[in-house]
Specification:
Layout: H1 8-26, H2 36-45, E1 50-60, E2 66-77, E3 81-88, E4 92-96, E5 100-105, E6 110-115, H3 116-119, H4 134-137, E7 138-146, E8 149-156, E9 163-170, E10 175-182, E11 187-197, E12 215-217
Parallel strand pairs: 6-12
Antiparallel strand pairs: 1-2, 1-11, 2-3, 3-4, 4-5, 5-6, 7-8, 8-9, 9-10, 10-11
């Protein structure tokens, strides 16, 4: 069965729920806690500035039926920058410099540009640059470990958040996986591959110039 691509506009909307939920968690400061999962959470975020990792992503509907499977690369730089690149089975780029969000679809030769401060509104994107402690924004719960994998669950304290929960998994070395559930019961499961913590990234890595001949929707 052919896995459908996400059109540029749909990708932008999904970014509000999934990608920015992921990034808002990864850009938050650490919290001092104890316990297997919570201890690994704290150790991972202590001194965390960014990451560069491959990923495998599966999205399931509210009946837990897979609707999409993709692979690609994720780069994050605090504060507020990320670059999410889909490589298989299609190509697509979602990148933000903290002020603008670009969604580029090479097959459609189209890029959508949106200013985060005026268009996203009350979404997890507003948490990208926050300095508030993690436990002020989420109720954090230790979950049962599965072998060497320790899990924690983060439930947003904000009532109108666009996602209902985030689960983080840590192996003994680093962040291993993430699960995000939205308000419609859809779940994104992400497995991180070869995660490089605090790589040599700079602001220039999170800017995007539309190629010549590409249709541009929105303003620079």
């Amino acid at each position: 069965m052919r896995i459908p691509r996400i059109p540029a506009v749909a990708a932008f909307r999904r970014a509000l729920v999934y990608y920015l939920a992921l990034v808002c968690v990864l850009l938050l400061p650490p919290i001092a806690v104890a316990g297997p999962g919570l201890d690994r959470l704290d150790r991972f975020f202590a001194g965390f500035k960014g990451l560069d990792t491959g990923f495998e992503q599966t999205v399931t509907d509210n009946a837990q039926r897979p609707t999409q499977q993709t692979r690609g690369r994720l780069q994050i730089l605090r504060p507020g920058r990320f670059r999410w690149t889909y490589e298989e089975p299609y190509q697509q780029l979602i990148v933000t410099d903290g002020a603008r969000l670009w969604v580029y679809d090479p097959d459609l030769t189209q890029v959508t540009i949106t200013r985060l401060d005026t268009s996203i509104g009350n979404t997890p994107a507003l948490l990208l640059s926050t300095e508030r402690p993690l436990d002020e924004l989420f109720m954090i719960t230790e979950l049962p470990s599965q072998g060497d994998i320790a899990w924690v669950q983060l439930d947003p304290r904000q009532e109108d958040a666009n996602f209902t929960r985030v689960r983080l998994a840590f192996d003994r070395e680093s962040l291993y996986a993430m699960e995000i559930v939205d308000g419609f019961g859809q779940t994104m499961n992400i497995r991180f591959l070869g995660l490089d913590r605090n790589p040599a990234l700079g602001p220039a890595d999170f800017r995007f110039t539309p190629p010549a001949g590409v249709d541009v929707i929105g303003d620079e």
